[in-house]
Amino acid sequence: MASDTDNGKIPQINFDLKTNRFSGNKGCNTMSGNFIIKENTLSFSENIISTKIACPGYNEKAFFDNLLKTNRYEIKNGVLQLMYNATILSKWARHIDKTVTKQI
What we know:
Layout: E1 12-16, E2 21-25, E3 30-38, E4 41-44, E5 49-50, H1 60-69, E6 72-76, E7 79-84, E8 87-93
Antiparallel strand pairs: 1-2, 2-3, 3-4, 3-5, 6-7, 7-8
């Protein structure tokens, strides 16, 4: 199976806990949608919006399937683990953008 980073980009996901919306990219195409979070349960709406750029060597369907399978999460050592029951589907490390400059 092709790697999620074959095209050189690292997938990312951003959560807005106030609006229950997420956005990010799958390493090639951008995505956004809604999520539901309660205690340690997490699920994503099937109505995910995504760009449709052709991404040779990239298994986008597997990425989406795993996102939609998610029914819970854990945070271990600062790493978000999206899970289906006890199975880890993906791991997400927090990245702080140090290129943002403050305005005076």
